[in-house]
Amino acid sequence: MIRKTRLFTPGPTPLLPAAQFAMAAADIHHRTPEFRALYTRVLAQLKEFVGTKNDVIILSSGGTGAMEASVSNLTSPGDRVLVLSAGKFGERWSGLTKAFGCHVDVVEAPYGSTFTLDQVSAALKLETRAVFVQATESSTGVRHDIKGIANLLKENGSEALLVVDAITGLGTTHLDMDGWGIDVLIGGSQKAVMIPPGLAYLAVSQRAWDRMEATYNPRYYFDLRKERKNAAKGESAYTPSVALIAALGASLDYIAKQAATPESPEGNLAEGRKKLVDNAETCAAMTRAAAEAMGLKLFAPKGYEAAAATAILPPEGTDSGVIVKGLKSKFAAIVTDGQGEMKGHLFRIAHLGFFDYMDTIAIIGALEQVAVAAKLPLPNFEFGKGLIAAQNVFAERTK
Ligand SMILES: *Cc1c(COP(=O)(O)O)cnc(C)c1O
């Protein structure tokens, strides 16, 4: 059969065709009225997509650039900070905060799990200046309890700012930045917003803007206050990734349109985002049910599975690479193996962004084919068991 390449990876994710066309047509200079109109519109759309009244800043960088900006802009050397880590991206927070000279306390949960609020509470000090965490840990497919952590900080009357890497959380998890009291919420372009890598965005609370007046870690290219000043005039401080900004506008239009009604054919971004989250939740629930029906085990604990990506364990004694390679060689379907020391021990199927029912059924069908072709040791496996489970979940959730 011919092979049609499809990404099932938690970033980069499949591209929205309308966004690709917008990129190709984005032949505009960034110091012109045309760009200012585009940038102003996209920044306003992003606020609605994030679901906040706070200012949103766009950076022309990978998601890690926005993580670094939140550390360099919000901390000073010697600041005591708390990192909540349960995977490769949590470890990135530790690396970044240490690189900027913070005194770092770490609550570390084993890969494939999350920390308890008691652990967070015990590690929180009077002098903790900021807490850094992921909304969803893409390396393990685990969702952390951001609302619980935000509440805990509030109850303790903590001065600590809550900085959330929601690079795969935005568009896959219901997050209420303003209601819960998140101070910085970070997203990336190659995740739920369906465009290529190269843009990061952060929503920043007033408390965080105030903190920046006093912090003094070095920053130049990623100076958030400078970007905010320029954004108010419809510009960025330096040459931005114009094409990706045009693509982002097209993608946010598409997300809004998912909530179109006859009265409002343009749709609505807040409602569109909810649909995007529900879409990811449904694709994830279908995939979890299918994996379990096939006799495979999930890595994330019950109730804490991320909708961004499902991490599945291979059968005992099998390297997950066999499944990853099987899907690629037979179907050109790209799923990801475990990261770092998790390589060989799990594989991940993504649901964030431009994935739908059809994609989900296809990857489950392909996984069944690979299970047989690779003779995976799954004693009760039969063709169709995974697909039936997924069909039932879809029918139940979309009744
Ligand atoms: C992808 C990802 C990042 C890193 O983004 P880059 O664009 O690769 O820098 C950070 N955190 C999480 C949770 C991610 O999924």
TrEMBL record:
<feature type="binding site">
    <location>
        <position position="348"/>
    </location>
    <ligand>
        <name>substrate</name>
    </ligand>
</feature>
<dbReference type="GO" id="GO:0004760">
    <property type="term" value="F:L-serine-pyruvate transaminase activity"/>
</dbReference>
<dbReference type="InterPro" id="IPR015424">
    <property type="entry name" value="PyrdxlP-dep_Trfase"/>
</dbReference>
<comment type="similarity">
    <text>Belongs to the class-V pyridoxal-phosphate-dependent aminotransferase family.</text>
</comment>
<dbReference type="InterPro" id="IPR015422">
    <property type="entry name" value="PyrdxlP-dep_Trfase_small"/>
</dbReference>
<dbReference type="InterPro" id="IPR024169">
    <property type="entry name" value="SP_NH2Trfase/AEP_transaminase"/>
</dbReference>
<dbReference type="Pfam" id="PF00266">
    <property type="entry name" value="Aminotran_5"/>
</dbReference>
<feature type="modified residue" description="N6-(pyridoxal phosphate)lysine">
    <location>
        <position position="191"/>
    </location>
</feature>
<dbReference type="GO" id="GO:0008453">
    <property type="term" value="F:alanine-glyoxylate transaminase activity"/>
</dbReference>
<dbReference type="GO" id="GO:0019265">
    <property type="term" value="P:glycine biosynthetic process, by transamination of glyoxylate"/>
</dbReference>
<dbReference type="InterPro" id="IPR015421">
    <property type="entry name" value="PyrdxlP-dep_Trfase_major"/>
</dbReference>
<dbReference type="InterPro" id="IPR000192">
    <property type="entry name" value="Aminotrans_V_dom"/>
</dbReference>
<protein>
    <submittedName>
        <fullName>Aspartate aminotransferase-like enzyme</fullName>
    </submittedName>
</protein>
<keyword id="KW-0808">Transferase</keyword>
<keyword id="KW-0032">Aminotransferase</keyword>
<feature type="domain" description="Aminotransferase class V">
    <location>
        <begin position="26"/>
        <end position="313"/>
    </location>
</feature>
<keyword id="KW-0663">Pyridoxal phosphate</keyword>
<dbReference type="InterPro" id="IPR020578">
    <property type="entry name" value="Aminotrans_V_PyrdxlP_BS"/>
</dbReference>
